[in-house]
């Protein structure tokens, strides 16, 4: 069952400029959906470098395996993405399909197959028919252009209720470069699973190992700090392409190059922007929740505590019910397994401190806290009181709509 | 908001015989509820030994701290339990309350305070007034009797929709002994948290260290194999008392004593019976789900995979929707972080194998699998195909009612 209405937390798609060295087009291949574009083909200029991060699942999809293998070369000339079928848990047939997809994309791009990157999202366990791509790709390749990016964002959607894009301009050495990104989020089409896909492209000139270091670092505070329901897809894929085609671009080959600082910050901003849009489009979401943890024994410990809070069904249903239920936050801190001392713990909803040093805050006003919970965007802060470790993660509330969307209710 | 209807998965309360050396009564102390008994006082014969296991939360309630300290003595003469207030996150006031409760119970039982065991469930962060116990306990102590156990099971309920009890008779050496247990489960009263409490008593004669070994072992496959929503209370408490008053009982002092085998099996059966009743009364539950994992690299690995499946909101919503969605089981196996090989994985719903060696089973009938999902009790089996490790865990489905109960929906 698809959720028809657009998320109340949706944000408008930004104006996205072209990225020099990137051209793309979309097509309707009829993989699962009728009357919508479900294929996204991007071609990259010669010399484009690539970095990627993928699902931690021990049962990854065939395209994830393909991308991991291709990443070793560090060079990218084509990206082929489809929605409607995840090509996951498809055995040898799935591997054959990726091989045929890559050969086909390599042919239209004029490159080697290991310069092709693949991603698929949709039904699991159904064979993905490579002939669908053979039918549309040669024609699609004749239409590639520098925009509009919203078309690409739409082609990769499954049950996302709005297309997701982010863009930044930043100086890198002597060049002014663009970073564009699109993402699809935790959508679900029964009997399938949520998958996060994101593709980011820049016209900066950055060697592949440096690009990988930037992406691996950037993902920690963004895509790896967002959770909808604690479930992890077999297909999660984030790819970053750098064409080097910005006017005046000089290639960065040293990850410690001081010229990278502003670029890294802009990349992080694009990734965080996209990741929060994913949380805004969580299934059934009506509230965006930011969990801030301070005072943990380390940043890693803070992150685990923050995820324990953000993944707690009891915290998330309380948010859905606009209930300032700090007892459930105490519970989630306690179950995280990280160092915590009940008698040093403080909790706030927004600016209202509800608990202090292991007890209800004497100054706490239930009315003020309850009024705050009516906001569409909620910040929950837990101060552990033990150290200097901090973390921020984002999630959404757990509503009856989440159950309806994912339960495919037949009653 | 309380759920009014009794769980469709409820089972009848068993006929429970007396346990020699155990006498108890219940009282209405008005801690939170009106017109219902919310206090349970049990008195144990001199010489009663005790064992316990508690929440792993780093923010445990004051009564949990009290019990942990008292367990060191190994001797129990009284148990005092209340519903309506958890005495959790109550700071120094909470500690003072447990001290006063224990002094009071010690007085009516004629024992030392460290022979008193305490448990509380209900509101978190609200001071628990010890005067409520002072008002009722002396009179309650005059009414203690050997039954009925259902009264005790009812007095400890919060949003449980049915009282939970289990009983077994078993031979231990020359004596015929009884094991009686009661439990309360994952109930929730906004703004409070779910808590599991269980109390088991036997008239066997077993030294405290042996009793602790039996309980710690027994809990692994029972209460530690049940999950409602992955959240862990600050107050979870399981206590086992052995009075030694069965006719002809000889004290067992060696954990390797071969006479213990049948007793251990009967104890495990009582614990499992109670634990499954907790899953049957999960908030909003309409289906009981048993997850079986076979072929993992170890039993511990199998347990982690089984819990990953049982805690997955996507698996649980699929069950609610009667959807034979094996892709979500693949996802949950993959995210468990345990050794798994996509191409050796097999999954079955009941007797219907839906996936085999990393692909949809060619013989799989969607109709048969879908029909199976309409049952009230569902078995999901995942064979990892790597080793001999096995595990079983139990959970319930994730329904709109769960969200309604825990979200205290105001709209």
How many H/I helical runs of chain A?
11
Task: Specify the oligomeric state.
Answer: homodimer
Counted beta strands of chain A:
15
Largest interface: A-B, 73 and 73 residues
CATH topology of the largest domain in chain A: L-amino peptidase D-ALA esterase/amidase
What's this, in brief?
Chain A has 411 residues and is an alpha+beta fold. Helices cover 31% and strands 24% of the residues of chain A.
Descriptive report:
Two copies of one chain form a homodimer. By secondary structure, chain A is of the alpha+beta class. The first copy, chain A, folds into two domains: 22-280, L-amino peptidase D-ALA esterase/amidase, CATH 3.60.70.12; 288-407, Ubiquitin-like (UB roll) (Roll), CATH 3.10.20. The first copy, chain A, contains eleven helices and 15 strands. In chain A, helix 5 (208-220) crosses helix 6 and helix 7 (299-311) crosses helix 9 (326-335). Mean pLDDT of chain A is 91; it is low at 188-193. At the A-B interface, helix 8, helix 9, strand 13 and helix 11 of A face helix 8, helix 9, strand 13 and helix 11 of B.
């Amino acid at each position: 069952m698809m959720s028809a209405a657009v998320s109340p937390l949706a944000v408008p798609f930004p104006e996205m400029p072209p990225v020099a060295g990137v051209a793309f087009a979309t097509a309707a291949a009829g993989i699962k959906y009728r009357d919508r574009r479900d294929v996204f083909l991007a071609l990259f200029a010669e010399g484009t470098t690539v970095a990627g991060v993928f699902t931690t699942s021990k049962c990854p999809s065939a395209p994830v395996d393909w991308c991991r293998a291709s990443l070793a070369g560090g060079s990218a000339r084509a990206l082929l993405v489809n929605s409607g079928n995840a090509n996951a848990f498809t055995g040898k047939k799935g591997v054959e399909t990726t091989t045929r997809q890559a050969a086909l994309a390599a042919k239209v791009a004029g490159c080697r197959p290991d310069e092709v990157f693949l991603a698929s999202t949709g039904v699991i366990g159904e064979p993905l028919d490579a002939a669908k791509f053979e039918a549309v790709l040669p024609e699609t390749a004749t239409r590639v252009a520098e925009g509009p990016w919203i078309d690409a964002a739409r082609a990769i959607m499954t049950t996302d209720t709005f297309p997701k894009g982010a863009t930044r301009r930043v100086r890198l050495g002597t060049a002014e470069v663009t970073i564009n990104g699109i993402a699809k989020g935790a959508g679900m089409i029964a009997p399938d699973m949520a998958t996060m896909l994101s593709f980011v492209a820049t016209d900066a000139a950055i060697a592949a190992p440096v690009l990988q270091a930037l992406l691996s670092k950037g993902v920690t505070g963004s895509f790896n700090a967002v959770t909808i329901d604690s479930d992890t897809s077999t297909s999660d894929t984030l790819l970053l392409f750098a064409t080097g085609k910005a006017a005046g671009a000089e290639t960065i080959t040293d990850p410690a190059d001081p010229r990278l600082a502003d670029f890294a910050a802009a990349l992080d901003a694009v990734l965080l922007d996209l990741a929060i849009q994913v949380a805004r489009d969580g299934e059934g979401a009506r509230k965006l929740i930011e969990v801030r943890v301070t005072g943990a024994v380390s940043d890693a410990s803070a992150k685990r505590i923050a995820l324990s809070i953000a993944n707690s069904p009891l915290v998330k249903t309380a948010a859905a019910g606009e209930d300032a239920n700090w007892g459930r936050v105490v519970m989630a801190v306690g179950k995280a397994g990280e160092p915590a001392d009940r008698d040093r713990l403080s909790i706030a909803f927004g600016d209202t401190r509800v608990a202090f040093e292991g007890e209800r805050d004497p100054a706490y006003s239930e009315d003020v806290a309850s009024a705050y919970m009516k906001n569409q965007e909620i910040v929950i802060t837990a101060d552990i009181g033990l150290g200097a470790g901090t973390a921020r993660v984002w999630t959404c509330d757990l509503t009856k709509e989440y159950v309806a969307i994912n339960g495919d209710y037949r009653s």
